[in-house]
Write a structure and sequence with these properties.
The chain is of the alpha+beta class. The chain folds into five domains: 108 residues, ATPase, nucleotide binding domain (Nucleotidyltransferase, domain 5, 2-Layer Sandwich); 142 residues, Rossmann fold, CATH 3.40.50; 88 residues, no CATH class; 109 residues, Dna Ligase, domain 1, CATH 3.30.1490; 79 residues, no CATH class. It is 32% helix and 27% strand. It is built from 17 helices and 37 strands. The strands form ten sheets. Strands 13, 14, 15, 20, 25, 26, 33, 36 and 37 form a nine-stranded mixed beta sheet that branches. A six-stranded mixed beta sheet has the order 3-2-1-4-11-12, with helices on both faces. It has a four-stranded parallel beta sheet with strand order 6-5-9-10, sandwiched between helices. Helix 5 links the parallel strand 9 and strand 10. It starts with 9 loop residues before the first strand and ends with a helix.
Length: 708
């Protein structure tokens, strides 16, 4: 919590995580209030209401002062897909193409496993039907659909009990007339059935990927509509008549209406919110290159933020059957913040496997029953239990008022399930859990950076999430990073990220164009039409036309290649622009692969437009006015792996730190919702924005040189 309540207006955001739901109120004057409550996956609204009511009452804020709500970061869509708990869904495809979603790419993600199962097609074959129609690759109608046949198959699906229908017709991205006809029939014959059209969801070539995105969108549409409606109704029952907006995977927020129509865009909304918050903090701290490290109760994520912008990809896979094997999941070619996820969070369970090795995750205790130290019924040792035993968490404290910690339960769980089976002491076992999870996260972060052609050692580690600042030091030591940045309110930082995210919508259209033969006027007309459509979409969400900005790009490749590289385009496409486009593509290709090819023809496959409106300016954080380190009167033993023993460590409340006053570790800095671990030999200081800047000591610096 920062600042005092004022009579001004507040924006409210919440992030529903696997263990905790984080809440943030941001005032027009920069005042920030935060809250953290246990998530309830049977009733997601109750924790939001209870947490917000407590925050409003504690700080004397009236419900009428809350003028905007950003619903973020929610795992609802992801869980529906992973657990296959979406609505009964039908598919209408062009004759001969209903099995595309099951045939997929005929690629095995494990070359040596001949029985490796492919991704579940989501829709059983009996609910996949065909209509006689055909449009060619240029949009010319070869065979128009018979409305009577369309009506017959719609009635067939409705009779089978579907609640949603995905419509994916061949080449509809060049001419959507037939999909629109099918939509009209569905609305007339089965008005209560949700409809998802492929040219709206993903207007580009590659039939399998387009079908997957359209099917998944339809599959979750009824549930997400109910979910968002329940949240909005619950807040309105409290008297909050604020606009509800939702976070997307691409790092932008959209209106609730668009979220209900395109729920697949919310698939990775949680990690995206954290990445946007990290980008904002990096810009404020004038540290443009950071690796955002978000560790919560269930998972940990890492995302590269270069030049103040998080990386975005269209190569995301949902619901992988094998976590780290590409091709074992469902491809979703929608723009998604590019990150790597590791199955390790505060609730990740430690266990001894059949070979006698200590493993951490991927199973999590979640919020119910939770880690053993929560005392809520969990008896398995977790990463949080290890952190408590090692002294990083206050044994007399609680987690944001939500859970009273119980150290003896943590020790007992580690002793029973890890220490005794391995013949170790409890401290040694807890340290093993801590080191394993930090090593796994560091290895994943290094691989992620290398895949992007980046050197992670040149990046600052920006740590947030309830468990991120606890583990940041060990992760940084193992990646070779020499500096850590911990933002204010790090424990609820993803929720804060929702409040700095822009309103954003995007669109893609396939149009094969060889640069040497490009019709510049036709391409400009296509891009301009996409801009007009996206501008209208933002206008319907309340964005003023003058506030909308556009970014253009194209998926380009050398002729003969089977993959593309996204390339930034100039603001306008005019005559004679082809050489400039080729130069831009060569530069983008070299950035990704180290060099580009010479004397090769270049073609564009897909044309993209992104429309965005910046979030309201975030007011400057009220200046911190702590009384300095002298206010720290507590110490407790904390274990540091590089020392190999416990060290009597000062415990300092973040609120007492003075801006610009350099200090030396070791120290445990207590924030609301998180604890920052600073080791012996480290130096740290609080900057004017409330960020903790930590320079790792000589041991880490030496390790970085050895890794060079």
């Amino acid at each position: 919590m920062t600042g005092q309540a004022s009579a001004g207006r507040y924006r409210f955001a919440f992030d529903i995580g696997g263990t905790f739901t984080d809440l943030v109120l941001l005032g027009d004057d920069g005042t920030v209030f935060t809250g953290k409550v246990l998530s309830d996956h049977d009733d997601v609204v109750a924790p939001i209401r209870a947490g917000l009511a407590r925050m409003l009452a504690s700080h004397g804020i009236g419900v009428g002062q809350v003028h905007e709500v950003v619903a973020g970061a929610t795992t609802a869509v992801t869980n529906l897909v992973i657990e296959r708990k979406g609505a009964p869904t039908g598919l209408i495809a062009t004759a001969g193409f209903r099995d595309v979603i099951e045939i997929a790419r005929e690629l095995r993600y494990d070359l040596y496993d001949l029985a490796a199962p492919g991704p579940d097609p989501v829709i059983p074959r009996r609910l996949r039907v065909e209509v006689d129609e055909r449009v060619d690759a240029h949009g010319a109608v070869l065979c128009a659909p018979d409305p009577a046949q369309v009506e017959r198959v719609v009635r067939e699906l409705a009779g089978a009990g579907v609640r949603a229908i995905a419509v994916c017709l061949l080449h509809s991205f060049t001419n959507p007339a037939h999909e629109l006809l099918v939509r009209d029939v569905i609305r007339r014959v089965a008005p209560g059935v949700a409809v998802s059209l492929s040219h709206e969801v993903l207007g580009e070539l590659r039939e399998y990927e387009r079908t997957v995105a359209t099917v998944l969108n339809a599959y979750v549409m009824p549930m997400v509509g109910d979910y968002l409606g329940a949240i909005e109704s619950g807040l309105r029952d409290m008297g909050i008549a604020a606009t509800l907006r939702v976070m997307q995977s691409n790092g932008g927020v959209i209106s609730r209406e668009l979220g209900e129509r395109m729920p697949i865009r919310m698939l990775e909304s949680g990690p995206a919110a954290g990445a946007l918050g990290a980008a904002h903090a990096a810009q404020v701290a004038r540290t443009p290159d950071v690796i955002a490290f978000d560790m919560g109760g269930t998972t940990a994520k890492a995302c590269l933020v270069s030049d103040g912008t998080p990386a975005v990809t269209t190569e995301f896979e949902a619901a992988r059957t094998q976590r780290f094997k590409k091709g074992s999941g469902l491809p979703v070619r929608l723009p998604t913040v590019d990150l790597i996820e590791i199955g390790a969070g505060g609730g990740s369970i430690a266990h001894v496997d059949a070979t006698g090795l200590l493993k951490v995750g991927p199973h999590s205790a979640g919020s119910s029953p939770g880690p053993a130290c929560y005392g809520l019924g969990g008896d398995k040792p977790t990463v949080t239990d290890a952190a408590l035993v090692l002294g990083y968490l206050d044994p007399e404290g609680n987690l944001s008022g939500a859970v009273q910690l119980q150290p003896e339960r943590a020790r007992r769980a580690i002793e029973t399930h890890v220490a005794r089976p391995l013949g170790l002491g409890v401290i040694e076992a807890a340290n093993g859990i801590h080191r394993i999870v930090c090593e796994a996260m560091a290895a994943a972060a290094k691989i992620h950076a290398v895949e992007k052609g980046r050197d992670v050692r040149r990046y600052t580690l920006l740590a947030f999430g309830g468990a991120g600042p606890i583990h940041a030091r060990e992760v940084a030591r193992r990646t070779g990073c020499t500096e850590i940045l911990v933002p204010a309110n790090a424990g609820v930082f993803s929720a804060f990220g929702l409040l700095v995210a822009p309103m954003k919508v995007d669109r893609v259209r396939t149009r094969f164009t060889r640069l040497a033969e490009m019709d510049a006027a036709a391409v400009e007309a296509l891009l301009a039409a996409m801009e007009d459509s996206l501008g209208a979409e933002l206008a319907s969400a309340g964005v003023a036309p003058g506030a909308v900005n556009f970014r253009r790009s194209a998926d380009m490749r050398y002729v003969g290649q089977g993959f593309e590289v996204e390339t930034e385009l100039p603001a306008r496409i005019g005559a004679g622009v082809a050489p400039e486009l080729a130069r831009r593509f060569d530069a983008a290709y070299a950035q990704r692969f180290g060099s580009h090819l010479e004397n090769q023809r270049v073609e564009a496959v897909n044309w993209r437009v992104e429309a965005f409106a910046a979030a309201p300016p975030t007011p400057a954080r009220p200046a911190a006015g702590g009384s300095g380190a002298g206010a720290a009167r507590r110490t407790r033993p904390a274990f540091f792996p590089d020392v190999g023993d416990f060290v009597d460590t000062p415990v300092i409340a973040e609120a007492v730190l003075r801006v610009g006053e350099p200090m030396a570790g070791p120290a445990l800095i207590e924030q609301a919702g998180s604890t920052v671990v600073i080791g012996p030999g480290d130096r740290f200081v609080m900057d004017a924005a409330g960020n903790l800047r930590i320079a790792l000591g000589a041991f880490a610096a030496r390790g970085a040189k050895e890794n060079a």
